[in-house]
Amino acid sequence: MTLLLRLLPVLAAIAYAIVMWQFSARNLARQLNTKSHRLRDPGLDPVLSRMAAALGLPEVPVHVYQVAPVNGLAAPDGRIFLTEGFMNLYRRGEVSAEELASVIAHELGHVAHGHTRRRMIDFSGQNALKVVLGSLLGRVIPIAGGWIAHMIATTLAARMSQRDEYEADEYASALLIKAGIGTGPQISLFQKLDRLTGGTALPAPAWLTSHPATDARIRAIEASCKRWNVA
């Protein structure tokens, strides 16, 4: 009974994290359903067909999320989205069809690796870790203990998120190569990324960001190609 009482805060933290994740996923699904439409574009259809053939699928369905930021999204239900902001860059010729295909391939990587499901588990564990560490450190360092626990949990979350991004990048590289598109558009898009997304002059420290640094991602792609002996 005593052990159960000690575990109650941890169990409550896990339960809270799961409930909040489910609430966020449902809220996101409602927004996507009401503010998106199926992507149909003559310039993108050929590259999407090549990716579908590489995957052995009749098609790769993609939707356009009608919001201004430049982004791609793999929804919890497995659907792939490009934002209207990304599509506007494509229409203005700032991004090519092949570069957009690399974004879609990356989001497909998140789906294939089950990252959305894994993030729910990771988030629940991180929430519990924050509660346990906050309780333990709070006894030793009454004022700063909670803040230290929060920073440890945030750093862990960032490392896990960066791991997912590298995995999705590698999946995208393999798919693009198999589709005959190659990793050139993937790399060129990363080289444009900071400018396209309005990168800040003072970014957060690398160990606190959810995405790896652009140059690190490019190096990882090039290393994968070398490992696969792909020119």
Describe this structure in words.
- By secondary structure, the chain is α+β, with helices and mostly antiparallel strands.
- The chain is built from eight helices and four strands; from the N terminus they run H-E-H-E-E-E-H-H-H-H-H-H.
Number of helices: 8
Low-confidence stretches: 200-208
Kindly name the structural category: alpha+beta
The shape is: globular
Give the averaged pLDDT, no decimals.
78
Could you give a short account of the major beta sheet? Answer: 4 strands, mixed
Distance between the termini: 63 Å
Along the chain, the helix and strand elements come as HEHEEEHHHHHH
Spatial strand arrangement across the major sheet: 1-2-4-3
Radius of gyration: 20 Å
Residue share in helices?
55-70%
Fraction of residues in β-strands:
5-15%
How many strands in all? 4
